Amino acid sequence: MSDDFSARSADTAAEGAEGPDLDRARDGDDAAFTRLVEPLRRELHAHCYRMLGSTHDADDALQDALLRAWRGLARFEGRSSLRSWLYTVATRTCLDTVERRGKRALPVDLGPSSDRAVVGDAPLGDIAWLGPYPDAGLGDGRLSPDARYEQREAVELAFVAALQHLPGNQRAALLLFEVLGFSAAEIATMMDTSTTSVNSALARARRIVAEKVPSRTQQQTLRDIGDARLREIAVGYSAALERGDADGLVALLTEDVTWSMPPLAHWYRGLDAVTDFAVRVPLTGCGSWRHLPTSANGQSAVGFYLWDDDAGAHLGWSITVLTLRGARIAEITSFIGRDHFPLFGLPASLP
User: Fold this and answer.
1) What architecture does CATH give domain 218-350?
2) What is the CATH number of domain 3-104+164-212?
3) Which residue range or ranges hold the RNA polymerase sigma-70 region domain (predicted)?
């Protein structure tokens, strides 16, 4: 992540701790408190998602953090910016959640890939699954185009998935330093530890993340291929699924493509395995598909709908996030579940 982005984010997002709204909020004016925190709500939510790997958990954590901040506002002495103090409260809230719930996973974390399609694969309900993030509006209105670009880079699927392999303190230190631009000394105060401990946590976190995150981000790839080509790829993938067109689908994929579908445990790697799965399950075994384009984790995504006889409509099935390498699809991650659709502002069903 860029140090320039960290500085820009801190400069543009920080709100002055002085002023009548702070005084009113300390006196119990909840409308004044809302005005203080509203400009920071979106970036705080993204921080909670990076920490927790779930939009639903991020919703709960942010709500809890703001309630804690509201109740503890009298203790805010203005020695740091309000933004720094709110990040302290949000980070500690997320660390409490991490301690209770542990990390979130993708199917690739659970075991080796399957060589052939597993028909009738059953969801695993006892796994805390990583979820997609609706990035529409991330950094809207207050950040430069480059800063918005880097905010999306910091919610990319590979990066958030890699964070889940870190203990909570390392996760928090890396995000606060690399993404948000706080100094090691500031982080030590925020996390109630020593600067030495923060630097040690950062060193370990960087090693693990570097092993798991591609050197080239999706934002760099998307910039290179351009919006028009990106739309062509997403539309081509969606149309091939709707038509049952195996050749059209395969033409869009890399040789080492992967396809995973949380909460299903089985996943597939390589063109042969992915093609076998695609032909036997979504292309011929599921029925009629419809789709709507969207964006998730700073990446191209598609909301897929599957025909349901009882409902007499296509019901929301998955938010599928596409990870590209060049102009081909290298990873397909289909987050199955109707509960994802409201988060993306997508309808529950299509005709």
Assistant:
1) Roll (3.10)
2) 1.10.1740.10
3) 36-103
